[in-house]
Amino acid sequence: MKFGVNMFIWTAEFGQSDLRLLPTIKERGFDGIEIPIFNPTTFPAAQIRRALQENGLETTICSVIPNGLGVIADDANVRAQTIAHLEASIARAAEVGARVFAGPLYSPVGYLPGRRRTPDEWKRAVEGFQTLGPALAQHNVTIAIEPLNRFETYFLNTAADAVALVREIGHPNVGLLVDTFHANIEEKSIADAYRTAGSYLKHVHTCENDRGTPGSGHVEWQDVFQALREVEYDGWLTIESFGFAIGGLSAAASIWRDLARTPADIAFEGLAFLKQNTAKFA
Ligand code: LER
Ligand code: MN
């Protein structure tokens, strides 16, 4: 298992000025970071790759679908534009050296049309992600599709649904991500969500039930680690939280108060907790 931290803890849009954070992240014991790609055209892949190498860190990539786009959108032109956007982002992910490209890659976070998903939307998702197959294989990148809680999406809320989707897509480079924060809201048992994900589990976001420091709340971590061991998960445990007052990003994540003494505490105290407690299951 590798330990990562999402840069959203420090910054809304990771750029070259944030590379100064890498030595401390390495020194404090992380194996890698998670960086968002929002705009594949301006993403400085070469510089980031170099800085990662200099600091002995790896990276995973996360992304969200920009407003107005969607793999499941009604309009075929919008769907084609979304696929092109994702293909370009996957290419940037490969350039930076990432093997995992994760997130709610079907529609924008917070897009809630006020109804359930339709069979047509499901079909478009299957076909859309199948279309990404060749780019994923070419770049040796795996996408991990993330179910979100009901307040952030209507399309995919549970691990069981995400597994059904991934099975129908049927491509080795397409799996799912289970985030403890969302699973705590939607699943009967967080640990069972990981069991349900099984061999389709390609990425894990760890975070406490309040988006705070892993180990400080009521997520049943020992059960989670036990389940990850049962499904022989050997990928990333990435701590994902968000800066407490970094404008639009904090607002998008509905962070309206301090969740720890500092955002960095979530990363570093969370890492100590994860390392100590996963060691018992090694
Ligand atoms: C959104 O709530 C989330 O969990 C993220 O992984 C999206 O980047
Ligand atoms: Mn997440």
Mean pLDDT: 98
Question: Mind summarizing the main beta sheet?
Answer: 8 strands, parallel, barrel
CATH H-level homologous superfamily name? Divalent-metal-dependent TIM barrel enzymes
N-to-C order of helices and strands: EHEHEHEHHEHEHHEHEHH
Q: List bound small molecules.
A: L-Erythrulose, manganese (II) ion
Oligomer: single chain
> Roughly what percent helix?
40-55%
Radius of gyration: 17 Å
CATH topology: TIM Barrel
Low-confidence stretches: none
Silhouette:
globular
CATH class annotation: Alpha Beta
Q: Tell me the number of helical segments per DSSP (H or I, 4 or more residues long).
A: 11
Distance between the termini: 9 Å
- Beta-strand proportion: 5-15%
In total, how many beta strands? 8
Query: How many structural domains in the coordinates?
Result: 1
* CATH architectural grouping: Alpha-Beta Barrel
Please give a structural write-up.
It is a single chain. The chain has a single domain, classed as Divalent-metal-dependent TIM barrel enzymes (TIM Barrel, Alpha-Beta Barrel). The chain is 41% helix and 14% strand. It has helices at 22-27, 45-55, 76-96, 119-131, 133-139, 159-169, 180-186, 190-197, 221-230, 248-252, 263-279; strands at residues 2-6, 32-36, 58-62, 100-103, 142-145, 174-179, 201-206, 236-239. It is globular. The mean pLDDT is 98.
